Amino acid sequence: MRTPARHWPLKLSTLVVVTACFVVINATFLISQNFRNILTLWGEDVQMTVYLSPDLSSGSREFIEEKIKNSERVAEVRYIPRDQAFADFRVQMASYAPDITQDEELLKLIPSSLQVRLQERLSAEQQSQTLQTLASQIKAMEGVEEVSYGQDWIEKYAAVVSSVEAVLFLLGVVITAAALFVISNVVRASVQSRKEEIVVLEMIGATTSMVRRPFLVEGAVLGAGAAILSVIFSFVMYTGVKNLIVTKLSFFQLAEHIHFFSPSVIALSLLMGSFLGAVASYLCVRRMNDGFAGRQG
Amino acid sequence: MIEFSHVYKTYPGPVHALKNIDLHIDKGEFVFLTGPSGAGKTTLFKMISAYDLATSGEVNVAGHDLLNLKNSQIALYRRKIGVIFQDFKLLKDRTIFENVALPLQVRGDRTPTIQRRVYEVLEQVGLAHKHDQYPEFISGGEQQRTAIARAIIHQPGVLIADEPTGNLDPHLSEEIMDLLERVCAQGTTVFVATHDHEMVKRRNKRTLELRGGMIVGDSK
Asked: What is the ipTM of this complex?
């Protein structure tokens, strides 16, 4: 059987509704993906500084360094000798307070240190917990004067990340469920309007698969079409929002960290759209096309 | 050709739609089925067209035991019968030609064969000149003739018609009955349910009367 090429008004309205659903899903995922990008970016700044005693021998320092490296959550431990810290300080402060960099007494107070960076795969909450645990262990080591990791900032960051992820996840689930509900209702209405066709086809001896095939093809094409349109609409919206960030919120320097879907994600969304359309059609047709459509009316 | 033996049909309730139906219709016979609304005519026709199964008994049509028909065999069975409804059941978005061609397309016939056969049948029912029109733009009588053309295009052994003249005026009803008689004359068993007692009398054919789910009269 051929794919029915009629019912244009109904198909058009179905396409519009399904596209709108996909746009909402795309927007949620885009916001979620870019929020994560930004939060990860801020998270990359999370590190710990271990200030060492001035009279610490190089053997003892290496011993401390090795002990910290042994933690599986630690990605890198970098030794910053006093001279380098001094030079870095000079460079950083030169434009703000050039006089300070000439104060030799003050500079003598700058200690050598170890910069500890954690594994990137750790969540914000894990980072916070790891830093707390690690800090208390390191503090107890001989030759360590102070451990600093921006405790307040880390705790707030972890709380924000957890909340944002939870909200986005919930939003994603609710919107996806709502979209599925809308899509299946729209497709059901479309199939229902053609119940007569199913009855006639069954009556003249069309097999179950013959009756279903055109609806499945139509559902898949509709889903793919809606997915393509939704990607286009989402891109237009994304471009608009990015322009806004570039022009009005340039202070935050976020523009280079905001991205659209990658080609593989776009391809996947087209496949998913097509699959979803076919599945929604199948579920609707299956209820009507059991070989006994005529029994109902 | 059509054989019912001690057939009962009970719907939940329980509603006894058919009770102890014994019926035998030969090949090439023309039979009317009469009875008031709710007598069970449509239930009986749904069983013949394999839209419903008997609760008990035996139903045999064109050599098929319908109670033991597998789901996969139902479609193939329906290709051997023709069904006509009171409301025509034509697809509004397809032309007369396309509506009539459907059974042959379903059967997988080749396009030249389909075209030749559709024009033959449209000629037979007097609608060849309207082949490219849509159902809503032709009269009720023409719509029913289109439905008949669709029902006979694959030369079925059995043709069942449920109130085929229910929506038509007396003149058109006679026209449709003439057409069904011509189909019967070609060897098809024709079984027609109707309320029109006057027409049944005029046609002088075998008539079965159904009341309360039971056959109460057979003019054979």
From this structure: 0.86
